[in-house]
């Protein structure tokens, strides 16, 4: 039950959505883009979201696109996590999507919603950071394509009225060796204690994390340590963990000590799996 | 869409056409129960966690507590009231797959979608689908048996 009222708008083109946002704002309203809607509805019950107009982007054809060519994969941000999993065009992203929430919720949660949501795990971002993807953003100044590293810094950085239309990635990355490990405190559904995605590009190991800090991240310093192959694995992990961008999370899902213990073991499993595969 | 918060929402539920005057911010669960009197879908957590509110939209299970009724325009919604002696309903009875029954409509809708869409579902697929629903009376073993019995019947009738 949403405790406040809003008007619902269903644009069928990018231009219409952007214009709607601007005109609602001119009328003094607080509009919000609406994709799967699951976070907007559930957090509004807790007064953590407010809007008096929602703009549903699911009916914009570009937001539903799924195009794979020799060079590039294009995913619309309104694709559900189930669609990402079942089409399996990018197996690492499919795996990350398949571990979020539960099967029924994934029929509703969208890629764009997971990237832009307040709930800070945003686990689909991890594979997208690893493959240096580009994000297509629509706004007042038209449609632009920007590197994810520029527009995603802990959370999505958008100007008012902008929304994510698509995510694009170089097809060469899609088949590179990879591992995705999500560790929960218990059960097989729900938020992570820690999640690590890893991808090997040639000899270079790339890693991205969720649940470690209150935002997903990829860190050049952490990767430099994990790639210091002249050192034994446990030393590489110890040095890498000294390079985390913020002190490790300490909350109801898990204490900092417990998270650190699980993270160390997860990194160990990932490094051995990816490096053993070389032999 | 009109700028007042209430509007007319045409819905197709269990094959019947309805038109309700509801808030644009009303969830499908609220409209099903409070406007259409279809109380089979249950409010549980209202947070997307328990699955008690599960209904089908164009044959896909969704949690009706976290979707707006207005989003269902042009779609076909099926609630537990729309199932008439479906194999999974019989199987729940035969396998004693409930105790208090509060989670049952949600489980049945999800399991019905599973057996209809994936008649050759493997053990991990069954597990993955059923993880979407919570049974506080812990009837999980019996529920799984009920689902497997319908899948086995489907296999047998194919062979
Ligand atoms: C039961 C449940 C379990 C969950 N478990 C996990 C989990 O394990 N891991 C995890 O990472 N997350 C998890 N989540 C969080 C979920 O991924 C986010 O809440 C996500 O935002 C939901 O996506 P949505 O499409 O429904 O978003 P919406 O509710 O539509 O939107 C969420 C926010 O993103 C904005 N937004 C949406 N799309 C766009 C866009 N294209 N451009 C710009 N802004 C946009 C909206 O304005 C809004 O602020 C869970 C959520 C639920 C309900
Ligand atoms: S009431 Fe909808 S998931 Fe619990
Ligand atoms: S039978 Fe009581 S909650 Fe499942």
Automatic annotation (TrEMBL), chain B:
InterPro entries (UniProt xref): 2Fe-2S-bd, 2Fe-2S-bd_dom_sf, 2Fe-2S_ferredoxin-like_sf, 2Fe-2S_ferredoxin-type, 2Fe2S_fd_BS, Beta-grasp_dom_sf, Diverse_Oxidoreductases
UniProt keyword annotations, A-Z: 2Fe-2S, Iron, Iron-sulfur, Metal-binding, Oxidoreductase
Lineage: superkingdom: Bacteria
Domain 2Fe-2S ferredoxin-type: 7-83
MF (Gene Ontology): 2 iron, 2 sulfur cluster binding; metal ion binding; oxidoreductase activity
PANTHER family: OXIDOREDUCTASE WITH IRON-SULFUR SUBUNIT (PTHR44379), XANTHINE DEHYDROGENASE SUBUNIT E-RELATED (PTHR44379:SF7)
Stated name of the protein: (2Fe-2S)-binding protein
Organism listed in the record: Anoxybacteroides rupiense
